[in-house]
Design a protein that fits this description.
Elements (H helix, E strand, L loop, with lengths): L4 H34 L3 H35 L9 H33 L8 H27 L6 H31 L1
Helix pairs in contact: 1-2, 1-4, 2-3, 3-4
Keywords: Membrane, Transmembrane, Transmembrane helix
Protein name: DUF2269 domain-containing protein
Length: about 190
Amino acid sequence: MAMAPGVRKFALTAHVASSVGWLGSVAVFLVLAVVGLTSENTPQAQGAYMAMQLTGWYVIVPLAFASLLTGLVQSLGTTWGLLRHYWVLAKLTLTVVATFLLLLHMQVADHVADAAVRANLSGTDLDGMRVQLVADAAAAVLVLLTTTALSIYKPRGITRYGWRVQNEQRAERAGERAGDGDMGTAAAARA
């Protein structure tokens, strides 16, 4: 089902805005994670972890779901389809996995932020989790840059389902053309 041009542009705008917002907010999260890990200033580290928790739940998680939802709308309402092209499938898979891992990742962010509020984090307190926050955020930036590149470059490759749909559409068009020609021949014979 193809969307009307105005609706398609609105859906595309919503998808691009939520996806770019997701990428930008994860980049901010990464900066805060690095500050929290490397800061010698305890109040600054505490503030960074508290900001990460708030940014994660109130900005990153909603943008991840918005990006996923608007991407589904885009794929289902345009000729690209959801399952026709490998790049769309790859982007969908990366987005679903990234959203799932984000929800798991936020548990670590919550734990570190709660610990930062309760006590002064020294250089070794929750060191593994603090490093994990940096690594996870860096990986998320790379994944989101990959989905962005897939959207721009749209590598060739049609799935089996895509080939079947494409062949069915070609057959339909050929049948319609043949049917038009038959009507024209019948009309000419009657005249």
